[in-house]
Amino acid sequence: MYAYDEFDRAFLAERVAEFRDQVGRRLSGALSEDEFKPLRLMNGVYLQLHAYMLRIAIPYGTLNAAQLRRMAHVARVYDRGYGHFTTRQNIQFNWIKLDELPEAMAALAEVGVHGIQTSGNCIRNVTTDQWAAATPEECDDPRIWAEILRQYSTLHPEFTYLPRKFKIAITAAGHDRAAIKVHDVGLRLHRNEAGELGFEVLVGGGLGRTPFVGKSIRPFLPARELLSYIEAIMRVYNQYGRRDNIYKARIKILVHEIGAEEFSKAVEAEWAAIRDGALHLTDEAIADIRDRFIYPAFETLENEPAELVEALKDPRFATWHRNSVHTHKVPGHAIVTISLKPVGAPPGDATADQMDVVADLAEHYAFSEIRVGHEQNLCLPHVAQRDLPALWAALDAAGLATPNVNLVNDIIACPGLDYCALANARAIPVAQEIAKRFADLDRARGVGRLHINISGCINACGHHHVGHIGILGVEKNGQEFYQITLGGRADEHAQLGTLLGPAVSYEQVPGLVEDVVDTYMELRAGPQELFIDTVARLGVEPFKERVYAAH
C-alpha cells in the first residue's frame, strides 16, 4: 500500500468543502444543471437515468481494509446498500441523493479516496494488474509507476480539458491482466538485454464506437524517462486531437488517421525538446515514491502446509482452491480471487455487508490489502496458505466463494439500461440469465476458460469487443436487440471480436450463447483447446451456420 501524507489529506478536505458549496448553490437555484454539470463531473458525479451516480477511483486497483469498510458505510448510509465495481478499477454508487453527496464524499476523503478525474476529458484513473507485487512473473511493482503517473496527472493544468477522456494502463507481467492494448496508452514494464528497467509504449488502443488495438511506438523507454515521454504524447494529442466531433476525438482516431509512424515522429520531436527538463525522473524521486509503498512482512512458511493438505480432502474447498487460488511469489503464500459473480446476481455488485466481510478478512488474513480487477472481481493478494481453509469458510458463509473465476458465468457487464442514460439495452438481466444457463458447476468447468462481456451501448463499458463472446445492446425500432461477436481477447494477444451475424432479440440472447458454447464443445480439438483457440482455428463461420440455423 502507498502511504498518503498530510498534503493529500488536506487537499481532499479542501476539495470536499469546495464541492459542498457548489451543491449548495445548485440546490438553491443559483446554479442551473448545465452550470453545475462541469463542476460535478470534475468530482466523478454523473446524472444517470434515475439518480446521480458517484464514481470513486481506486488507484491502480489497491484498497486497504479501512477504505473498503468506509465504502460499505457509504453504501449503507447514503445509497441502497451496495456498490458496483467497474472495469476500470473504480466503484460506483448509483443512488446517492444530491444533498447528501458532500457528506458521502467527506466520509470517503477521510480514508483517502475520492472521485477526482473519474470523469471529464482528462487523464482518468491509472490502472494496473490486480496481482501486482504478488505474482512471481513481474520484473517490478507496476503500482510504483502508476502512482508516479497519478501524482503527475492529477489536476494537470495543461491536460484538464483534453479533446476527450484519456486512459492509461500498466502491466509488468508476461500475461497481461490490465488490458493495456485497449487503452489510450498502454505501458508494458520489462527489462532490456542490459537489464535496464523500462517500458514498451503503446498508443491508440480503445473500444467504444470505433475500436482499435494499440500500436507500439517505442519498444523500450528507460523508466526514468516515463513522465517526459507521456507528456510528449499528451501534448501531441492535445494539439492535434479532434475537438469538432466527439465521436472522432479520442487519440485512437488521431493515431489511425495519421498512422502510428507519423504519430511517433511527432511524439519523438516533442520529447526531444523536453526529455532533459523538469520531468526527468531522478533515482531519488523514484526512490521516494518506492519507499512510500509499505509491503507485508512475510513469514517464512512452507508450501502446502498440513492445514491445506487436510482441507483439500473436502471436495467443495478443493474446487474453490483450484479455481480461485493462484501462485504467489513468496513461498507458503497465495493470491486469492474473490468472485463477485454468484449466479443470478448483477456482475460486479457487492453489498455493504459483503464489503465489510472482505475488509475484515483482509485484516485477518491478507495484511489489510484488497485489489480490484478489470474483470469486476476482488482479490486478496497476500494470503498464507495455512489460512486458506478458514478464509474459504468465511467467504462461503458470506456468499463470496463462488468458484467460477474465468468460467462462462464469470461475466463482465456494464450497468446498461437499468441505470445508464446512454444505454440502448439492458445488460445486467442478460448476464443473469446466461449465468443461470450455466449454473451447473460441472458443466461450466467442462467448458473451461471462456470470457463473456456485455455492453448496453456502443460506448463499450462492458468491453464487449474483447470478450471471447461479446454482446452489444442496440436499439431497433424501439426494441432491444443484441449483436454477438466471437474471438475477442484483452490479454497480451489482444484482438477484437468478429461479428457472428444479424442482431437478435433480448429473448433470444441466452439461447444463442448456449448454442455457441454447445457448438464449441462439438468442434474443439479436445478438452485442452480453449474456446478462444477454437474460434481462432476455425473462424466464426462454423458457429454462424449452426447457431442461426437453430434460431
User: What is the CA–CA distance across the termini?
Assistant: 51 Å
Largest sheet: 6 strands, mixed
Overall mean confidence score, pLDDT: 97
Q: How much beta, percentage-wise? A: 15-25%
The beta-strand count equals 21
Global structural class = alpha+beta
Overall helicity: 25-40%
Rg, nearest Å: 23 Å
Give the low-confidence spans.
Answer: none
H/I helix tally: 18
Global outline: globular
What does this structure look like?
- Helix content is 37%, strand content 18%.
- The protein has 18 helices and 21 strands.
- It has helices at residues 6-28, 33-41, 65-77, 101-109, 142-153, 226-240, 251-258, 260-274, 283-291, 306-311, 315-324, 352-365, 388-397, 428-437, 441-447, 509-523, 531-538, 541-549; strands at 45-47, 52-57, 62-64, 82-85, 90-93, 127-128, 168-171, 185-191, 197-203, 215-222, 325-327, 333-338, 349-351, 369-372, 378-384, 412-413, 452-455, 469-476, 479-486, 498-499, 504-505.
- The strands form four sheets. Strands 16, 17, 18, 19, 20 and 21 form a six-stranded mixed beta sheet that branches.
- The model has no long low-confidence stretch (mean pLDDT 97).
Q: Summed up, what is this model?
A:
With 551 residues, this protein is an alpha+beta fold.
